[in-house]
Amino acid sequence: MKRVFSGIQPTGSPHIGNYLGALKNWAKIQYDYESIYCIVDLHAVTIYQEPKELRQKIEELAGMLLAIGIDPTHSSLVVQSAIPQHAELAWMLTCVTPVGWLERMTQYKAKSAAQETIGDGLLQYPVLMAADILLYNAAIVPVGDDQSQHLELARDIAGRFNSLYGETFVMPATHLPSVGARVMGLDEPDKKMSKSATGSGHAVSLLDPPEVIRKKIMRATTDSNPAVDFETMGAGVQNLLTIYQAFTGALDVDVRAHFSGMRYGDLKKQVAEAVVAALSPIQERYKQIMDETGYVAKVLDEGAKRITPIAAETVEVVKKAMGLYTAS
Ligand code: AMP
Ligand code: TRP
User: Fold this and answer.
1) pTM (2 decimals)?
2) CATH of 210-288, one of 1.10.3720.10, 1.10.10.10, 3.30.420.40, 1.10.240.10
3) Which has fewest Cβ within 10 Å: 14, 126, 204, 215?
4) CA–CA distance, 70 with 72 (Å, rounded to integer)
């Protein structure tokens, strides 16, 4: 059975962009593959995280991944730092990665521009991501569109390793959702919805109560038209329609027929109700999961136990390929 692997950072609070771009697909395709989903805490610390808060966010994010439907009896839900081979393979891949490839990454350029001193980890970030994927020879990687460039790099790194040391790694394919691969900020529809943006009207968190969701969506930026016009609409209206379509699964033609000419106030009300209806059961499950003492820790522990042998085997294979020291 082919493997699927994906990761999410335990920073900020997960929002509908994460859900529609990635998490919804994680749950949807999990049974078609051997699935591994990873909370990437080593990626999170490429930017300073308050230790107590980070530790707590890891557990909360694991609870959320279970709440959105990751089934721990089938899929392995793990924390990156619990499996030392991620960092070990990352070093080996670092040694075959030209610095120029890393300096070109748009996410590196954006994140490093916001830092006073740039940690080396920020530059290495996509190498660690390549290691995450290649460690399990994952064939499919479901992500949002902002990760496409990192995935191309992962393939380049795999290709370079294979050509230097012999065929070792499977080429991972990027898997994007057809609707919702790039959800934009509600307040700034020209920027992708992000966990780190500070504005209170920017993102809908998966744990926002219904009244907060309604308020945020009713205040979303639109344009100077009074009503939906598919020919001239701006990015804000387009984004609201995307959110509606991704949450309801409605077809293009139906969305067009339903919303054409609708006033923005009514559009927003319908979008808000679609989001509330989709998130309410997730929030209920989240609460149940977090109320069960020890459950999340047990799931993470079992996940790590299940997949560590795969990671250990890959590292052995890579060491041998490179001529590094192995016991036998
Ligand atoms: P991150 O929060 O950066 O760890 O992202 C976790 C997953 O959510 C990745 O697959 C991202 O590509 C995806 N993602 C993050 N922000 C968005 C967004 N605004 N729209 C769609 N997908 C997103
Ligand atoms: N960089 C990804 C993000 O911020 C998270 C991530 C880390 C990831 N390792 C991965 C995603 C491996 C897919 C596969 O969204």
Assistant:
1) 0.97
2) 1.10.240.10
3) 215
4) 6
